[in-house]
Write a structure and sequence with these properties.
With 90 residues, the protein is α+β, with helices and mostly antiparallel strands. The protein has one domain: OB fold (Dihydrolipoamide Acetyltransferase, E2P). Helix content is 18%, strand content 43%. The protein is built from one helix and five strands. A five-stranded mixed β-barrel has the order 1-2-3-5-4. A hairpin with a 2-residue loop joins strand 4 and strand 5. The longest helix is centred in the first third of the chain and has 16 residues. The protein is elongated. The relative contact order is 0.21.
Length: 90
């Protein structure tokens, strides 16, 4: 029993210390969009990267968006983006 516990405790500690990518959301206005690079930057300076499964519809400079993302290896990867108000083209 003691041997089993001595093997399980270090494993439990390692599992407890490992944390999955944290998910968050943010709202803001788009400052710039680079469709070819699959990225956009909000006016606060944060750049988000997205995969082909994220819709680019409505992603334009000046659009207000709500972005759900995960921080993966220091990059903000979009899981979902919702356009709250379109770009002001006036």
């Amino acid at each position: 029993m003691k041997k089993l516990l001595s093997l399980l405790l270090p494993a439990a500690f390692v599992l407890a210390m490992a944390s999955p990518a944290s998910a968050s959301d943010m709202r803001g206005r788009i400052d710039s969009v680079d469709i070819e690079a699959n990225q956009f930057t909000l006016r606060n300076g944060i750049t988000f990267y997205y995969d082909d499964d994220v819709s680019e519809e409505g992603l334009a400079e000046g659009a207000k968006v709500k972005v759900k993302y995960k921080n993966k290896n220091g990059f903000f990867r979009v899981t979902k983006v919702k356009v709250l108000s379109p770009a002001n083209n006036s």
